[in-house]
Specification:
single chain; mainly alpha; elongated
């Protein structure tokens, strides 16, 4: 769990505040202001990755995609060969 800064509220407090504020009837501008405050509060919690982490995550995703492509291609060849042998003359490969 990430450490909380001085001006961050725990999620439970945000939910409690939203419930109490919801009890008070608001007009459309009040609801919009509440929404924008909640958006800003959530955006303050976002942690952007460093350049090294970003390259590492990208490499992991690319390796995973290549592995999945090989797996699906292998299944495609296997099922194609199987279908050719069952329904055709078996001369696919």
């Amino acid at each position: 769990m990430a450490s909380k800064g001085i001006d961050e509220q725990p999620s439970e407090d945000v939910v409690a505040n939203a419930k109490t504020e919801r009890a008070v009837r608001r007009g459309p501008f009040g609801r919009l202001a509440l929404f924008l405050r909640q958006v800003v509060a959530e955006l303050k919690k976002v942690v952007t990755p460093t350049r090294k982490e970003l390259f590492s995550y990208t490499a992991v995703v690319l390796v995973f995609v290549v592995i999945m492509m090989a797996f699906v291609s292998g299944l495609d060849l296997l099922f194609g060969w199987l279908v050719a042998n069952v329904f055709g003359d078996g001369s696919m490969l």
